[in-house]
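Reviewers of the previous submission asked for a worked example of the structure-prediction workflow described in the proposal, so we include one complete record here. The input consisted solely of the amino acid sequence. No template or homolog information was supplied to the procedure at any stage.
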Amino acid sequence: MNSDKLYSKCPRVGLVSLGCSKNAVDSEILLGELKSRGFEIVNDAAQAEIIIVNTCGFIESAKTDSIDTILDMAQYKTAGSCKLLVVTGCLSQRYGDELARELPEVDVFNGVKNYPALAERLAEICGVKPAPESANAAACCGIPKRLLTTPSYRAYLRIADGCDNRCTYCAIPLIRGGRVSTPMETLLAEAEQLAKSGVTELTVIAQDTSAYGIDLYGKPMLRELLEKLTEIEGLHWVRVLYAYPNTVTEELVDAMYRNPKICNYIDIPIQHISAHMLRDMNRHGSAEHIREITDYIRRSAPGFILRTTVMLGFPGETEADFDELMHFMAEHPFDRVGAFTYSAEDGTPAASMPNAVDAETAEQRLDRLMRQQMKISLELNRARIGTVVEALVDGADEEFLFCRSYAEAADVDGIIKVPHCGNPVPAGSYVSIKITGADYYDLCGELVPSL
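From that input alone, the workflow returned the following structure tokens.
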């Protein structure tokens, strides 16, 4: 277990976080717990005495990436300062026993919960004595201690963990369990704490954000939560990702559209539009509702940005199903689209379904859909040329500012590139930009002088 090894008084910890933004929040909680116990957090894995890999296990490619990263980090046991290799997260939760047999390089395995307990265990292994103030540093009112891995001006707010939807292809409920919403008062307190620390852009996330609160309050409460978040001083933008279509309502859209602090942007992963596919995927709601809500947004909320995710090659997907999806995406254009091919996950109903689609066909469909979407995205981006938008500066190089408006979510969407003429604006600043050019994913612009 390496308990016989000597560690620094403040052991150096490096963490590699893989996967989605929900996983990133777990990483931030663990880092916060470790820092509060006296560990030093470092960015260079070669300097770390303890290396933690927070894994993703959502689809096969993510599992492979997680294993490769673990093996890469294990090399620092001989090539660096690493004395303890820790693996946590979704892959470890699901396959912990198997990983322990196959990866003797790993000293500690942990799942997706109990991060305070993991931090305490690591403190015991490393002989770290708790600081006198650590008793008072415990999470207050259920607010997790987080060390942000995002830039200081933006953060994610995870409003629930787990999922009740039970889509036949998805292992998330097997890994994280059913949906557990965080009480609204706790979320508001956490958001206020983040705002006081300098966060101005808050991105609301969960496995299913639009179902927030059903388990606590008996009905979806995302709209009420968003409205209360916008009352917090210091928050400038509130953004919503991962909204399951069946609980996205006209009332929710209206509330978002009329509130100047809520970005006119929503991520609604539809996965498919064929009724046959939606039924076999066990996607709640209907193709008709997807059509109705997207039509309503386009009709009632001009400029509202729609993002979605679709899956190609699900078992039983016919050419007719795919053609229906292509036609829908052309007739109901989304501004942003993420697409991936089906991956059979152990223990899910879809893994044993007949009529598997071969990988070559699935990849061809993915390619065809994304080529169509590139044309749609380019057309929608070009329609923005000449408009003036408020934008958040994310960074700069010697020539350009790299910015995002309400229409671009961090990490998943494109950017607006703006020449700064030798006068770079600090990251985290809000500026006015006139859009002057567009390509498939990114935009160009110029600064508009403030009056």
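The first strand starts at residue 12 and ends at 17. We consider this example representative of the routine output the project will generate in years two and three.
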